[in-house]
Specification:
The chain is of the alpha+beta class and 281 residues long. The chain has twelve helices and eight strands.
């Protein structure tokens, strides 16, 4: 399995290990394996690391993994297959990809088996191509090549320029025609604003709230600052995203008001803000 493919998955899943939180569906480690995929789906028990039915010792046991048909691998030979150990995680990812079409060169099929989402396959294959061609730009863990207050202020200035002028369009903003017409949804709007400031938050065609929530540096809600990207639980967990302005205000593209300034102190947004904050510049 090409290292470029494994690196692309590592980038998309946890931003090269910068976000090792357990996902909302229970995926864990550097490359976000479901626990039962790691130890084996024939194991008679639960699906999360914290379940008493899958103790940590069993999860990381090469013997148990072999017995139950899992994909976890002891890559560094220390006697444990640890999803939070970067070497073990990379070997395990290669093991899974190889078993799902990767050895025959059908990398898209293998990646789709890893995550059944078209945006995911597109994003992983895009990074793989960049790494293979040597054309990938330097990317900081904060989400792009531009940094600091200058990029933040430019992103906010660009985003603010269409307040009240751009209605919400579900799925909009993912081609140049939509961008030229300023037709965005919440995630494409945030991507566009920061892209205009030189901060890369992902491919135009494949950026969603699910991809944005994996970028940048995790910040406590009590410590968020102007320019941080914040998330809300609307139609799903992390279903809405915005750019924090300070003093409880934020820039967003909402389905009811289009591009507008929201207020965290209003009941609607206060009830839906989930505390997920990412610093991307």
């Amino acid at each position: 399995i090409p290292w470029t493919l494994i690196a692309a998955i590592h980038r998309v899943e946890t931003n090269f290990g910068q976000d090792l939180n357990t996902s909302s569906v229970g995926a864990i480690g550097h490359t976000q394996f479901m626990v039962k995929t790691w130890v084996g789906w024939s194991f008679p028990g639960g699906t999360r690391l914290g379940d008493a039915s899958i103790p940590k010792e069993t999860l990381m046991s090469p013997a148990a993994i072999s017995k139950y048909g899992g994909f976890g691998v002891d890559g560094d030979g220390d006697g444990k297959a640890d999803p939070y150990n970067v070497t073990d995680a990379m070997y395990s990812t290669a093991n899974y990809l190889a078993a799902n079409g990767g050895t025959s060169g059908n990398y898209q099929k293998a990646v789709f088996a890893y995550n059944h989402a078209s945006w995911y396959v597109s994003r992983v294959m895009g990074f793989m191509k960049e790494y293979t061609n040597g054309s990938v730009q330097a990317v900081s863990i904060k989400g792009g090549s531009a940094k600091g207050s200058e990029a933040i202020e430019k992103a906010i200035k660009v985003g603010s320029s269409i307040v009240g002028k751009s209605p919400y369009v579900w799925g909009g903003g993912r081609n140049q025609g939509d961008i030229n017409a300023r037709k965005f949804d919440c995630s494409s709007y945030v991507r566009w604003a920061y892209s205009s400031a030189g901060v890369d938050l992902g491919p135009v065609s494949a950026t969603t709230t699910d991809t944005l929530v994996k970028l940048g540096k995790v910040v406590k809600a009590s410590e968020m600052k102007r320019g941080d990207v914040i998330f809300f639980d609307t139609y799903k967990i992390n279903g809405h995203v915005a750019i924090y302005l300070g003093d409880g205000k934020f820039l967003n593209d909402s389905s009811s008001q289009g591009v507008s300034v929201g207020d965290l102190n209003t009941k609607y947004w206060k009830d839906r803000f989930n505390g997920n904050v990412r610093r991307v510049a």
